């Protein structure tokens, strides 16, 4: 092969300014991939590059996992929609918006069933409607604890949910409940916005990954940019920022631990998993963390 630029035509005669090189500028057959080669493993999260290789390999279609249909329900007499002129005893409901955004890429559809007040009959009717929609996953927030307005668990049981667990040794997120109703996975998340998001990251995202056949991303082990305080008897999923220092990435713990504090969570990239009774760690110590944004 000799390139056009290295050839000069003079009538019927062609002169070359460079010698021919065998195989130069020729792509051998099977150079990119060969017959029988696996190009995409099961459980692959399809990126644009995966779509390119599949199309290049002449695949007219791909078999993919069906994404689950997810239903969301917020509960609480005090809740109102964003944009409302607030009364003194009202709180803006943020959980369903946050969860919809968090879980969107795992879901075929996300249906927001709105806000239900703390009334047992109302909860029964409206949750029955949410189940009638036959979601693969139903997520409630609020009313998960032990107060007299915390009615969600009783109503879920009335509606045929078989409870798997309720209350776990983590913070935030202690009152998390999980059960099933037929094929529907039912997650009852605590109402506190940080607790709701942290339990969704720690429990719902792995459940959805398993549903889709996608492997869990590995946890990170990174040095602390500042010390952590001692922990209680509950495993702490501590908000932290990923900070790039000259020595590499580090984790800067966010000192705010209030489970209603959304603005601190909005600044976090990672959750440090601080073990039960951890005495606290010095700056520089390596700690385990999970990425909030990981698929
Ligand atoms: N006696 C006990 N009380 C509490 C315990 C306990 O073990 N014993 N646990 C505490 C913990 S930890 C948490 S977390 C909360 C969670 O309780 P609930 O799930 O019943 O949550 P609510 O009382 O409904 O709400 C708590 C808080 O969050 C606000 N909220 C609720 N829904 C939303 C929403 N969709 N968007 C934004 N904010 C929301 C709600 O207005 C409250 O301020 O229980 C503790 N109590
Ligand atoms: O679990 Mo609660 O989430 O500690 O506030």
UniProtKB/TrEMBL annotation:
Annotated EC: 2.10.1.1
Keyword hit for Metal-binding: yes
Q: Which Gene3D superfamilies match?
A: MoaB/Mog-like domain, MoeA, C-terminal, domain IV
Which cofactors are reported in the record for this sequence? Mg(2+)
Gene Ontology CC entries for this record: cytosol
The record's annotation in PROSITE patterns points to: MOCF_BIOSYNTHESIS_2
- Domain of life assignment: Bacteria
Query: Which pathway does it serve?
Result: Cofactor biosynthesis; molybdopterin biosynthesis
Which reaction is the catalytic activity of this chain?
adenylyl-molybdopterin + molybdate = Mo-molybdopterin + AMP + H(+)
A GO molecular function assigned to this protein is: metal ion binding
Q: What Gene Ontology terms for biological process does this UniProt record contain?
A: Mo-molybdopterin cofactor biosynthetic process
Q: Which residues form the signal peptide?
A: none
Q: Record's InterPro entries?
A: MoaB/Mog-like_dom_sf (IPR036425), MoaB/Mog_dom (IPR001453), MoCF_biosynth_CS (IPR008284), MoeA-like (IPR038987), MoeA_C_domain_IV (IPR005111), MoeA_C_domain_IV_sf (IPR036688), MoeA_linker/N (IPR005110), MoeA_linker/N_sf (IPR036135)
Alphabetically sorted, this entry's keywords are:
Magnesium, Metal-binding, Molybdenum, Molybdenum cofactor biosynthesis, Transferase
- Functional description taken from the UniProt entry: Catalyzes the insertion of molybdate into adenylated molybdopterin with the concomitant release of AMP.
The UniProt family comment states: Belongs to the MoeA family.
Spell out the protein name for this chain. Molybdopterin molybdenumtransferase
Specify the species. Devosia aurantiaca
What is the phylogenetic placement of the source species in the record? Answer: Bacteria, Pseudomonadati, Pseudomonadota, Alphaproteobacteria, Hyphomicrobiales
């Amino acid at each position: 092969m000799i390139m056009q630029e290295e050839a000069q035509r003079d009538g019927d005669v062609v002169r070359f300014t460079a010698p021919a090189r065998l195989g130069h500028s020729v792509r051998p057959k099977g150079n990119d991939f060969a017959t029988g080669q696996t190009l995409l493993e099961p459980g692959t999260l399809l990126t644009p590059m995966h779509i390119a290789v599949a199309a290049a390999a002449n695949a007219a279609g791909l078999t993919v996992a069906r994404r689950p249909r997810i239903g969301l329900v917020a509960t609480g007499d005090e809740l109102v929609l964003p944009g409302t002129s607030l009364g003194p005893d009202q709180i803006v409901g943020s959980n369903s918006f946050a969860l919809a955004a968090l879980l969107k890429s795992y879901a075929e559809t996300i249906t927001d069933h709105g806000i239900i007040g703390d009334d047992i009959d109302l909860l029964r009717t409206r949750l029955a409607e949410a189940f009638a929609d036959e979601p693969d996953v139903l997520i409630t927030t609020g009313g998960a604890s032990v107060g007299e307005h915390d009615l969600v668990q009783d109503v879920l049981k009335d509606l045929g949910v078989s409870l798997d667990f309720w209350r776990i040794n983590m913070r935030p997120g202690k009152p998390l409940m999980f059960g099933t109703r037929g094929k529907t996975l039912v997650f009852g998340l605590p109402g506190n916005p940080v607790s709701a998001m942290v339990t969704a990251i720690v429990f719902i995202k792995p459940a959805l990954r398993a549903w889709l056949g996608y492997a869990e991303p590995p946890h990170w082990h990174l040095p602390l940019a500042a010390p952590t305080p001692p922990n209680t008897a509950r495993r702490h999923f501590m908000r932290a920022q990923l900070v790039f220092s000259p020595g590499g990435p580090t984790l800067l713990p966010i000192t705010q631990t209030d489970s209603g504090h959304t603005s601190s969570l909005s600044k976090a990239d990672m959750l440090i998993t601080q073990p039960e009774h951890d005495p606290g760690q010095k700056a520089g110590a390596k700690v385990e963390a999970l990425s909030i944004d990981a698929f």
